[in-house]
Amino acid sequence: MKRVLILSLILLVASVLLADSVAILSASKGKVDLERARKQVKFKKGELLQNKDVLRTGSESFAAYKFIDASSMIKLFSNSVVTINASKSGTQLSKKVNVNKGNVLTQVKKGTGAFTVQTPTTVASVKGTEFMTRVDDDGFSTFIVTDGEVELRILDTDEVKNVSKGNTAVIDPDGEVELRQSSAQDISEIEQAELEANQSSETNTILIRVLDKNGNIKHIEVTY
Amino acid sequence: MKQLILILALILSSISLLAISALHVSPQTFVPGTDVELLLEIVQGHEEISTVEVQYRAVGTTKWYNEPMRQDDPNSLYWRGIIPRTAVKTDDIEYRFEFIMPNGSSSYLPTDDGITPLYTIKLNAPKGSLTEGFVLVSDESSVSADDGYVLAVSYLALSGDLDPKSIRVFVGDRDVTHDSEIGESVLVYREDRPQDGIKKAMVTAKVKGAEVYSDTWITQVLPGSQKPQLPFTYRGSVNFSANMYSVSNKDNAFSDPDDDYRTWTDLYGSYGIADLQANLLVSSLEDKNKQPVNRYTFGVQIPMLDVFFGDYSPSLSQFTMSGKNIRGLYSRFHTRYLELSWAHGESIRKTKTEADPILGTNASGTFKQEAIGARLQFGNDQSFRFGVTGTRYRDIISSLDKGVYQYTDDNGDTAYNVKAQDNAVVALDMQLNVPDQNVMAGIELAGSILNNNTIPGPISSEDLDDYGIDLVDIDPADYADYFVINKNMEPFLPSKANVAWTGYLRMYFLNNFLNVQYTETGSAFNSLGTYNQLNDTKVISITDQYTLGHLLTMSGGFSTTEDNLMKHKSETNSYQNIFAQAILRYPNMPYIKASLNSSTGKNKNNPDIDSEFEPYNRKALNMSFGIGYNIVQIPQVPTQVDISYRLGSSESERKPDENVEKITENANNGLAFTMNNSYLMLPLRTQISFATASNKDKLGNATSKNSSFFLKAYYELWENRLNPYVSYRNTSLSGDYDSQTYNYFNLGVESYPINNMTVTADLGLKNYKNKDYGDADYDATTFRLCLTQRF
Predict the structure, then answer these.
(1) Domain B129-231 is in which class?
(2) Is this complex's ipTM strictly greater than 0.85?
């Protein structure tokens, strides 16, 4: 028994030490929490994210991360929870985004390996596309595809559906799928979320220094 | 006659100080992470050079960094140096050479005239091969400084092959590896509050033992609302060296130096807007009774203010304070339209000779000298400037014991071994620069007064009356703190003789950099803050440099110097010099270089003064031709070759009567060859140099010859961390000389035990043999150890 405990301890320590980074936090705004091994950890922009890390955003908050193969950008809008999953196989990275809650926009480059997005009811396989995943409090999963195509597999039924650009799929908690053309409101919601994510509560002014032909320093002032 | 020769020698030596001519073929590109090797050939004035340094900086910056050059051997015309691999990583480099003379003065190649361009080398691809395995994950092209700068690079595609420990991260020209988070497949470097501007980043590493490098990624950091964090960046080196000597036949050896040790550090840092500098040198050769060897300088530069403490060589203007070292304070407040400079310190000169009762000599010494200089300038170098400069140099009488500088002669009169001087110079200067037209013109006018002996103190009013001078209620004693006025003044009353002026025109047109300058220096003009004052002379010099891209560089010039400006001497000496040189370099073809230097000197009688006149003529002509090539076509052994052939003649004659009498007539020629080999199959580099020169005295029908042969092999072990080398040099003198041979054998090792540390140990054996005088033979052993830690 003692040996098993020691071995388990060694394996645990080794797994922590060998934990390798799979993604990088490229942006965060507002209240964003990073949970690693069930503990909150402090982070900065550019933080390296590890497998099984959980990202949470609060209200009026935003976070974005990229997998290290530079294949994709995942944006978390307000009140979202995502678990990062990735496994290396040689020089390939198999990526998975577990969306537990909220609105998550996924932008994936073509030809960059396996990429899936999983909600409580559905697994979406992606090969070069852009789509929004929404998981609401009632257990509904919504996929709004704005570019490319997404293959959905319903976990309960193993049913497979393809959702192409301009279409939206809604899966209820029982695994029922509704396919429809994306409405103007669907698209608007994505645009609105992106706009809010990029907005800052303060007005900023930047001064850009330029040299005129006489070598004098001039400034261009930009307020945004 | 003696006077004539002295005057001529003075002119010739002074001119030659200013007449260093060198040929340098600049490498057009450099590979970041490798040393940039530079070869400089001195074609004129090499005997006047004490040391040569290369000064380099990243294009667009102002701070110079120095690196010493090494002469192949003491007689060689070739100097070699490097711009170290740690210097610049992501920007182009510009550089120049600084020639330092034994008296401390210096000159530059290219000329520091504000218009001739510096040597520039472009950033090339780094060593190794470009890989796409480094992927920039943080791919924003611009970020706000408020958001911070993040460099995130993935090398997942190189997993398994890449050694993460070999990764080096460069941002700007800084190696930020130690500040980066480096994982198995990704690295991150971040600055939370970066300064705005362009950031260039690059990564190098080893993949399966081969060096690879990434693209150079550019990110623009836009100004943010927060104050930028002021990063402290620093670079420099800490050094220690020891030289130990042993000589077998000390009585006859040419020299038997004492062992010496020195340590020095050069630190250059920047903290936000402030640039900091500290240079310290401590040597065991420091002797209170000799010229100081130890040096220290601390400097701070912020946008409108430069302050330097310690040893510094301020340059206020050509005629007042120009490049002479003082130990004290130098400060310069400068805005766009106003500049104020202040320098105050001591000229470092400590030499004392004890009395020798056997030789019957008195004690003697050199006074310490206080230097004060101030300059007020309106305008700037980019448009128009007007400046007023004043300096005063004063020998400090209290710095020597009275018994050292003063004694009573046999007649009971006070006499002086050494006299204390006061010197004041005031100068006005103007410069107009029209960058759009590439024209610059300027003028400087200076007047000086010199008191040749201030020890007797100021003259009394009564004595002034005796000289017929009425200063009306002014007593010179009241002004003695500022300047001592007495009968030792030179001139006693201001006149044209104590004035010097110069005017110059510099312009760039049709690929020509033209510089025309005229200088007149009065016979009584004295400025102790400058070098090489040619009193009582006028000098006209015209130089031009023509460049045709990287293909052709030609430069040439003419100067004429004539003394006896005030017509007080019985004869006038004139001296003309013409030089020309060219380098032709076609890409991937051998470069060709040539130079010519011709000088003539003669005198003419001054009919206003009745004295015996003996005309003379003196001529010298030297030419050199060379060819060099980087022979990459040789399989496995890329080879750099440089060959120079030089020939020349000189003669002097006088006309004591109607007949011409030759005094000297010489002809000389020489060949120099140097070859560097880098072997691709072996980590081996070799250098072979050969030089021979002969001088024939046609009148004495004697020929003196010397030749030298140099061979060096340099082996790189353990990925260039341990580099043993061996070298052999043979120098032979024959012909009119005693037949002599010098043999030098050196065995050493350069090692890089840890990052940026260099340890060099060198054991040198020297053997001297004189076939005509065997007792003079000796052996000498030298051991040198040098540790350098760059950071």
Answers:
(1) mainly beta
(2) no
